[in-house]
Amino acid sequence: MKVGAAAVVAGLVLAASAALAPTAEASSSCAPWSVSTVASGFGMLENLEFDGRGSMIVSETSPIGPGALRTVAPNGDRGTLVADVDSPGGLVAHDDTLYFTTGNSAAAGLVDTRTGTVDTIDLGTGTRSTYASGLAMPNGLARSQSGDLFTTRNLGAAAGLSRITSDRAVSTVRTDVGTANGIGIGGGKIYVANTFDLETTLTVLDEKNPSGPSARIRIDGIGTLAMSDDLTVGDDGSIYLAQNLAGRVVRIDPESGGTCVIATGVPLTSSVAFGGVGFDETALYAISFDGTVRKLARS
Questions:
Q1: 249 lies in some domain
Q2: For the domain that residue 164 is a member of, what is the CATH number?
Q3: pLDDT tens digits along 177-201
Q4: Torsion-angle region of 237 (φ positive above 0: left; ψ -120 to 50: alpha; else: beta)
Q5: How far is CA 250 from CA 20, 30, 131, 202, 266, in A?
Q6: Which of 43, 44, 47, 83 is the most exposed place for a label (fewest CB within 10 A)?
């Protein structure tokens, strides 16, 4: 999620956290995970991915000026992979290629400016190229088993889900998933979270037929006070959802629809992912609009 001003979000986070104190039912089924800081001092962090080479990649954005793709080492050391990126959003690594979205700004979504792209970086050579273009506010990004990419848009009349096929054709899949933001694929399903709708939900789609029948899982809390952001699918099939304004991470069982809060006090968290090469693969790593990278470990 990218909003017009981080200060507005930060000003609301304390009220939201109080309003969203988890119910006994929501929190009773799992113990809280421990939280520690890996790195800090970044700008607004939007998304993260592991490159399979020992680094975490984060997309750093700003309300003014260009963003960048930064690197984080397991010891917290920071670097830059790509400078001067226009409003970077979702990240997906596959083999030696990193896919990332550009043009993920609130203004682009609201006025339907279709200058957004999916770009690639060859992780071996550092060569950057444009993979697909003509997108409005491409936010979340995920790759299916067939090689198709799916991206979300969470503002504007055409907010929803788009697909980029392996031959780079861009199409709108559906616009009935609300203010679509976080996206993850696993177990043959596509999971899409909404951000600004009053009801907080997780939409479940068939990976092979994403425009077909859908199901929705209701998540505790008021959507505009929680502001669900990006998500990841664990190896056990559970969904781990960052709730930005609520400052918490929620685990969801897609079979039963049961949810529980595994971490609180993680302000403005925008994305989560399990550790990759060089990192603790049993831990979740979370990034935030406050410029901090955190590690969430099972207690």
A1: yes
A2: 2.120.10.30
A3: 999 999 999 999 999 999 999 999 9
A4: left
A5: 12, 10, 33, 12, 12
A6: 83
- The pLDDT assigned to 1 comes to 58
Residue showing tokens 């955190």: 294
How far apart are alpha carbons 212 and 173 in whole angstroms?
10
Q: Which domain holds residue 166?
A: 6-297
1 domain-assigned: no
Distance CA 174, CA 27 (A): 33
Q: What is the DSSP letter of 23?
A: P
What percent of the chain is modeled with pLDDT above 70?
Answer: 90
How far apart CA 123 and CA 147 sit, in angstroms, is 18
Instruction: Flag whether 129 is in a domain.
Output: yes
Inter-residue contact 83 to 43 (CB < 8 Å): no
Q: Which two tokens stand for residue 135?
A: 């997108």
Cβ atoms of residues 228 and 219 within 8 Å:
yes
**Nearest Cα residue to 217 out of 24, 228, 208:** 228
3-state SS, residue 7 = helix
Residue of 59, 71, 122 whose CA lies nearest to 271:
59
Q: Which two tokens stand for residue 1?
A: 């999620």
> What are 100's two structure tokens?
């990332």
Query: Taking the model in full, what pTM does it have?
Result: 0.89
Contact, 85 vs 66, CB < 8 A?
Answer: yes
| Residue 257 resides in a domain | yes
**Two tokens, residue 69:** 């793709």
Are 59 and 47 spatial neighbours (Cβ–Cβ below 8 Å)?
A: yes
Work out how many domains the chain is built from and give that number.
1
- CA dihedral 63→64→70→76, nearest 10 degrees, is -70
Residue with tokens 């609009």: 289
Q: Which residues of 89-102 are buried (b: 16+ CB within 10 A; e: fewer)?
A: bbbbbeeebbbbbb
